[in-house]
Amino acid sequence: MDFLPFASPKQLSFAPDGTYQVPLDPGFPLLLRLYRFSQPHPSIPNQHECLEITLVLAGSGVFTIGGRKYAAAAGDIFAVPGRTFHLLEADDERLENVTVYFTPELISVPGTSDVNLEYLLLFAGEQQRVSAKIDIDSSASRRVLAIMGRMSDELCGQETFFRMAAKNHLCSILLILNRAAALTPVVTPHVQLRLRDIQKLQPVFDRIHHRFSERLALSDLAEAVEMSVAQLCRYFKRVTGQTVSEYVRRYRIDRAKELLIGDIHSITWIAYEVGFESHSYFDRVFNQLTRQTPQEFRKSYARRLPVEDGTAGHPRGE
């Protein structure tokens, strides 16, 4: 199977809030990408609106998804929900993975069959599955890889009904992964409610992502969704599993990582730039969330930067 036509470009597009600009076609929002890393690269945590399925082809590394670290080796498969910060880091000089990006609307839109919603349980059914790494045996993993290969052929050949064929291949992959993750169909209204909850909080996420460096008042965030402060706090915790303050702190630390990798600004400057009121408080929160000090984090990436090509600070594909 040949994924080379879908090799990722060297320069990827990121928005200021860390959103990876996945170039999905609005008329057919499905994209296949091959990522190949010839040596350890500095990584920047990123997120995107779409859903993601990643299969490791070769090599090994660590895949951090939503603050949780997973060992990644050939044959491993991961399901990443939308708007979840994640990054894939190589721990040797050979790491390859193939990723399928797609939007939920490609599979299910309101008013369609309940069966379509069941395909998305990997991403909407967190109550059943707490791990983003699918517990899959080698035989099933090879089946998924083979289906991805056929999807690649369809997208390259673009014969009659190639989009229908590619979507069918995606559905086959989702079926295999749902079964491997031991998911059981849930009441459809529950899944619909979960997706609706996330959408309802979208104005809060947008306000945090665009104004994270400012002093964020809960009253302003509550106003964005026409709730009282108490209602927002309860609702946000129920939907995300975090308090608003926890989410904001984690988001600020993720943004700080980008600046630390760049190795241009002082750590004190970075602390204030991402919204912390003191260097010491920034150090404390950074250590709590990463188990490293900002200085240690910066040094660990400085050792990995390739000397010959001057690409320090360039984000990579995951």
Description:
The protein is an alpha+beta fold and 318 residues long. It folds into 2 domains: 4-185, Jelly Rolls; 201-302, Homeodomain-like (Arc Repressor Mutant, subunit A), CATH 1.10.10.60. It contains 13 helices and 7 strands. It has helices spanning 104-107, 114-118, 121-124, 138-157, 162-180, 188-200, 202-211, 218-224, 229-240, 244-262, 267-273, 279-290, 294-302; strands at 30-37, 51-58, 60-65, 68-73, 77-80, 86-90, 95-102. A 4-stranded antiparallel sheet has the order 1-7-2-5. β3 and β4 form a beta hairpin. The protein is globular, with a radius of gyration of 20 Å. Residues 304-318 have low confidence and may be disordered.
List the helices and strands and how they pair.
Elements: E1 30-37, E2 51-58, E3 60-65, E4 68-73, E5 77-80, E6 86-90, E7 95-102, H1 104-107, H2 114-118, H3 121-124, H4 138-157, H5 162-180, H6 188-200, H7 202-211, H8 218-224, H9 229-240, H10 244-262, H11 267-273, H12 279-290, H13 294-302
Antiparallel strand pairs: 1-7, 2-5, 2-7, 3-4, 3-6
Kindly summarize this structure in a few lines.
The protein has 318 residues and is α+β, with helices and mostly antiparallel strands.
Main traits of this protein?
318 residues; alpha+beta; Jelly Rolls; Arc Repressor Mutant, subunit A; 4-stranded antiparallel beta sheet; 3-stranded antiparallel beta sheet; 13 helices; disordered C terminus
Compute the average pLDDT: 82
Q: SSE order in H/E notation?
A: EEEEEEEHHHHHHHHHHHHH
Structural class by SSE content:
alpha+beta
Q: In total, how many domains does the architecture comprise?
A: 2
**Annotation field: number of helices:** 13
Q: How many E strands?
A: 7
| CATH-assigned fold name of the largest domain | Jelly Rolls
- The CATH superfamily name of the largest domain is Regulatory protein AraC
Largest sheet, order of strands side by side? 1-7-2-5
Uncertain segments are 304-318
CATH class of the largest domain: Mainly Beta
What percentage of amino acids are in beta strands?
5-15%
What is Rg?
20 Å
Overall 3D form: globular
CATH-scheme architecture of the largest domain: Sandwich
Distance between the termini: 22 Å
- Give a short account of the largest sheet: 4 strands, antiparallel
> What percent of the residues sit in helical stretches (DSSP H or I)?
40-55%
